[in-house]
Amino acid sequence: MADLNVVDFYGRVSRIKKARAKGYGFEAAGTLGRSYYTQHAPARSGISIFKPALVVLFGAFGLKGAIHYQIGGAVYSERVSALKSGEGFDRLGGYLMQADPVTMFVSAKLQETIGVRI
């Protein structure tokens, strides 16, 4: 004769396996279980291009300002004018790399912060 506790145990294990197969899980009171993450998923309002574009713009102007600070204004202007007199994408690079007010501002702030140019 089988022990009733063993039969009860295996019955419970069988119910747990069936529940797990359906995707259920154990959730203790006061804890964050599986249902919290499936029911409270944040709603996304589409892909936002604004934040990544802003990071790219800040990075580009920061890089331009750092280059202007590092090599100096005269050499920077010479190199940009050499790019502008080139062909194809060199002209585009010359247009994009010209010293604009934001580049000059970043270069001036680097000069104030760091001081002596290498």
Number of strands: 0
- Helix percentage: 55-70%
* Contiguous runs where pLDDT drops below 50 for at least 5 residues: none
Strand % is under 5%
Element order: H for helix, E for strand: HHHHHH
Q: What composes the largest sheet?
A: none
Report the total helices. Answer: 6
Structurally, the number of domains stands at 2
The mean pLDDT is 87
Q: Work out the radius of gyration.
A: 32 Å
Distance separating the two termini: 91 Å
Shape annotation? rod-shaped
- Which structural class matches the secondary elements? mainly alpha
What's a concise summary of this model?
This protein is mostly helical. The protein is 69% helix and 0% strand.
Topology readout:
Elements: H1 4-21, H2 34-39, H3 50-71, H4 73-84, H5 89-97, H6 101-114
What does this structure look like?
- This protein is mostly helical and about 120 residues long.
- The chain has two domains: about 35 residues, no CATH class; about 60 residues, no CATH class.
- Helices cover about 70% and strands about 0% of the residues.
- Helix 3 crosses helix 4 and helix 3 packs across helix 6.
- The longest helix is centred in the middle third of the chain and has 22 residues.
- The protein starts with a helix and ends with a helix.
- The model has no long low-confidence stretch (mean pLDDT about 85).
Features:
single chain; 118 residues; mainly alpha; 2 domains; 0% strand
